[in-house]
Amino acid sequence: MGGGHGRGTGPAVQRRLTAILVADVAGYSRLMGADEEGTLAALKTLRREVTDLKIKEHRGRIVNATGDGLLSEFASVVDAVHCAVDVQREMARNAGVEADRRIDFRIGVNVGDIIIDENDIFGDGVNVAARLEALAKPGGICVSRVVRDQVRDKFAISFEDMGEHQVKNIARPVRAYRALLAERADRPSIPSETAAPPASACGGWGCALSSAAARPGCRRVHPSQRLLPALRAVIPIGRAVCGHARPMAQTARASFWRSAA
User: Fold this and answer.
1) Cβ(140)–Cβ(87) under 8 Å?
2) Given its phi and psi angles, is residue 20 left (phi above 0), alpha (psi -120 to 50 degrees) or beta?
3) Beta bridge partners of 223
4) How far is the C-alpha of 43 from the C-alpha of 105, rounded, in Å?
5) Which residue in 100, 156, 196, 210 has the most C-beta neighbors within 10 A?
6) For 120-179, how does the pLDDT look when each residue is reduced to its tens digit (9 = 90+)?
7) Any idea where the domains of the chain sit in the sequence?
8) Residues 131 and 29: beta-carbon distance below 8 Å
9) Which pLDDT tens digit goes with each residue over 170-217?
């Protein structure tokens, strides 16, 4: 039996309530204008190593992926927000890349009733998620009020009220909330399988690609394979910046294994 019925004698319309995550690359046209090949290579790597991996890890489904955009759905709004936070925290580790070359995602999360058409999804729930994404800052997450209400006591993050916004093709104003990714001590922390090591152990991706390359004996690189996906993810970005990512990454890997031995 379908999730709903169309009017008259038309075929049944399948509907369901779901959490929708929309992600988009900030400044995509500018990035492509500066370096088409480098941007595409970096985006493919980030999709493979970060966004697609996190969506699968949090039990989501990728509905549609365009050149610079991504639409996914989750059975749980907690999983959707957890995925968004993990993606943005992982992306924050490439902050050392020059601003005009850096890839940043904007993410919007909403909960709403959707229409299912084969493998695609439609409806106001999807449209609101897309509008929320447009309201987010590069590297940020914007959620609807219902999402905020569902997850506000489950994560060690807080939400800033952005007020109501009249957005395109949505009849009523949308109340938006900005996720503040700094953790709060009075809330449970968000576990992550690829969480960055402490700053005292490693400086993040920058440490792997600069400090270790400059000093082959550097022991600041954390002895954990959690760093390797980050190394692979940043190589195309490094190539786009200076064309020397391969020898730098090879030196960093050699230093990594010597340090871990």
Assistant:
1) no
2) beta
3) none
4) 10
5) 196
6) 999 999 999 999 999 999 999 999 999 999 998 998 899 999 999 988 888 889 999 999
7) 15-180, 205-260
8) no
9) 888 999 999 998 765 555 555 544 444 443 333 333 333 333 333 344
Strands 69-74 and 60-65: antiparallel
Q: List all residues 6 or more positions away from 219 whose beta carbon is below 8 Å from its beta carbon.
A: 259
Segments of the chain assigned E as strands: 14-25, 60-65, 69-74, 105-117, 120-122, 141-144, 158-165, 174-180
Task: For residues 31 and 129, give the distance between their C-alpha atoms in angstroms, rounded to a whole number.
Answer: 24
The Cα–Cα gap between 103 and 109 comes to 20
With beta carbons less than 8 A apart as the criterion, state whether 240 and 101 touch: yes
What does each C-alpha distance from 174 to 77, 104, 128, 151 come to in angstroms? 18, 24, 8, 18
The helix (H) or strand (E) run that includes residue 246 is: helix 245-260
Of 234, 230, 259, which is closest to residue 245 (Cα–Cα)? Answer: 234
Q: Class of 15-180 per CATH?
A: alpha beta
